[in-house]
Amino acid sequence: MSTYHWQKSSYSGTASNCLNIAPVGDGTLRLRESDDPDVVLATSTASLRALIRAAKAGRLPAGGEWRLWSPGRSLPTAATRRTA
């Protein structure tokens, strides 16, 4: 496994459930939660930026449907939501 230079989110404070982020030489980012450091997510800066903007604007779908969303795609609406 590669060694990354992890940085803790300033919003985490002294809490144990922290978001860590690491830049990678290819221009992508790695994310992990301090409670489960073996699970590492890879993303682009553009995708993370779009996710943060959507979250701040309250545009993320409720009920876990966020996993269906990606930058450049429309968010699911009541008419287009998939049911399990």
TrEMBL record:
InterPro entries: DUF397. Residues 5-56 form the DUF397 domain. Pfam families: DUF397 (PF04149). This is DUF397 domain-containing protein.
